[in-house]
Amino acid sequence: MAKLPKTLRLREEAYTMSAAHHPMTVRQIYYQLVSGQVIKNNLSQYHAVSKALVDARLDGQIPWH
């Protein structure tokens, strides 16, 4: 299934952050995205980040470790 541009941007930003500050938890990546004004600070966005990170790991874009 094709990813939405918003999801792709989220994955790219998360990858860039995790590569620069490896290792990072979902929560750390989430707050970096919030502070960078990539996403808003709310529960639905936290779940979106979590899902995007799992999908990126399953696709091999972000390593599990």
General description of the model:
Helices cover 65% and strands 0% of the residues. It is built from 3 helices and no strands. It is an all-alpha fold and 65 residues long.
Helical content stands at 55-70%
Low-confidence region ranges: none
**Biggest pleated sheet:** none
Beta strands, count: 0
Tally of helical segments: 3
Number of domains: 1
Cα end-to-end separation: 25 Å
- Structural class, by secondary structure, is mainly alpha
Percent of residues in β-strands: under 5%
Mean pLDDT: 86
Order of helices and strands: HHH
What is the global morphology?
globular
Please give a handful of descriptors for the protein shown.
mainly alpha; 65 residues; globular; 65% helix
Please provide a brief summary of the model.
It contains 3 helices and no strands. It is mainly α.
List the helices and strands and how they pair.
Elements: H1 5-20, H2 26-35, H3 43-58
